[in-house]
Specification:
There is one protein chain. With 230 residues, this protein is of the alpha/beta class. It has two domains: 132 residues, Ribulose 1,5 Bisphosphate Carboxylase/Oxygenase (2-Layer Sandwich); 84 residues, Rossmann fold, CATH 3.40.50.790. Strands 7-1-8-9 form a four-stranded antiparallel beta sheet, with helices on one face. It has a three-stranded parallel beta sheet with strand order 4-3-5, sandwiched between helices. Helix 2 crosses helix 8 and helix 3 runs parallel beside helix 7.
Length: 230
């Protein structure tokens, strides 16, 4: 894989084989995030579970203490009073069948998150093949299928993120921007890790947190001492 000069210089600042404490690691992430844009900082956690088994799934959502630094564009699929509540709460787009048709016919995806009321999940569910692979299908566990759309919109705007396993048993999540600084990033990191640890399935055996890495968009990965997390 080709690595640019900046990446190689930043990689020299990371001690090979060292497992860092979270705050130290995030301070290093901030110092290596020296691109011309405000880089996103991501957390990558490998878990000792098998996502192929239903009883070993790890999935949930949390509002990060300091948000994500990203302006989340929210689409709400609802009717009547719920639609009005969504608009008042600050949803970017609100509609029902008209929005579902727009996605299907125009391949429209100018949004980051869909929140839907339960009664709209039947029509919306028909777009599963389109929305599923993009991670956009609303889910009750993530709080995106709800009758309290106003609360869901406000939480999304405040920095609510969803965490879930991929096929390789890794969770990938943004925890903020490099401009947040190490302290705020550490607060977000601790909140997310606490949620992941609390979500440990009863069927999980052995070491739960296998590895934990933080990195900025253009920076090197920095390993965190997983033994101190669980």
């Amino acid at each position: 894989m080709f690595r640019g000069k900046r990446y190689k210089e930043n990689a020299k600042l990371v001690e090979r084989g060292k497992l860092y404490d979270p705050k130290e690691a995030l301070a290093l992430v901030v110092s290596t995030a020296n691109s011309k844009f405000d880089e996103t900082v991501e957390l990558h956690v490998r878990l000792g579970v098998d996502s192929r088994h239903a009883d070993q799934q790890v999935r949930g959502a949390i509002v990060l203490p300091n948000g994500t630094g990203k302006n989340v564009r929210v689409l709400v699929i609802a009717k009547g009073d719920r639609a009005n509540e969504a608009r008042e709460a600050g949803a970017d787009y609100v509609g029902d069948q008209d929005m579902i048709d727009k996605i299907q016919r125009e391949n429209w995806f100018d949004f980051d998150l869909i929140i839907a009321t339960p009664d709209m999940m039947g029509p919306l569910g028909r777009l599963g093949r389109i929305l599923g692979p993009k991670g956009l299908m609303p889910n009750p566990k993530a709080g995106t299928v709800t009758t309290d759309v106003a609360r869901a919109v406000k939480e999304a705007k405040a920095g609510k993120i969803e965490y879930r396993l991929d096929k390789t048993n890794i969770i990938h999540c943004p925890i903020g921007k490099a401009s947040f600084g190490a302290e705020k990033l550490t607060e977000n990191f601790n909140a997310l890790m606490s949620a992941i640890i609390k979500a440990k399935p009863a069927a999980a055996k052995g070491q739960y947190i296998k590895s934990c890495v933080v990195a900025s968009t253009m920076g090197p990965g920095i390993k965190i001492n997983a033994a101190r997390l669980s």
